[in-house]
Input
Amino acid sequence: MDTTRVTRRARTALALATGTVLTAVVVQIPASATATVPAHRNAAAAPIAPHSSHFIGAFDATSHDTTSYDDTYYKDALGKTGPALKESLHRIISTTQTGKLTYDAVWDALKDTDQDPANSANVILLYSGRSTSKNANGGGPDDWNREHVWAKSHGDFGTDTGPGTDLHHLRPANVSVNSARGDKDFDKGGTEVPEAPGNFTDDDSFEPRDAVKGDVARMILYMAVRYDGGDGFPDLEPNDKVGNGTEPHIGKLSVLKQWSKQDPPDAFEKHRNQVIFDKYQHNRNPFIDHPEWVDEIW
Output
């Protein structure tokens, strides 16, 4: 993770993708217009930085039809619950992950998986929601970098090919916001992150904005199913505490489960899952296809 601080305030672009939409709908917002977010329990409502446009999807409907995978990809998992379901999903997503990337290759992959559907030259940054140039990647003050949603220090798996390069939990993030998140566990509360309104952090936890709370939860739970101590990597598992340090755990599980229900998979997340499956790793995040499996396992 890069620690360079951004020196100028980033503008945010809210990516609102709900349901299945065939074409992009762009709504121009006057430069003078502002929006507000609901008041957080620890902070008064704050204005969101002005942005030039919203988008509401831009994806082919067929990429969101995951029920067809039940008869093929998920057929061995159907009807199972608890540990049996978790073990079945582990076998499915590990054996079908025939594409594995180097850490350098992740840069170009993220430019594809997280492309702004309203602007093919840009990517959407996970925490801030900002749409920014694909070419603005790196470690500079106004760049975006590769955020490990399951912090790589939690299990100390580094950036070697494996969990350190798994696209299902790697996302573009503003350098300074990535630094603010650091390797903290996920929980509610804290002080609002200046570069990313709607995100909150304190000494030992980070709370992402509402629009990606479920995304974060499902990425964490994917990692817990995919990496179970085999392949020479640690056994990753969420728990219900913060301050996990270098242990192969991330919390809080109870909060992540709430977030998965609060923010169900949207078109952007489903499309991203499909791109990873079709073009890169050839495995899927089962909790995007079947969010109800979260409660079936945990």
The CA atoms of residues 63 and 276 lie 12 Å apart.
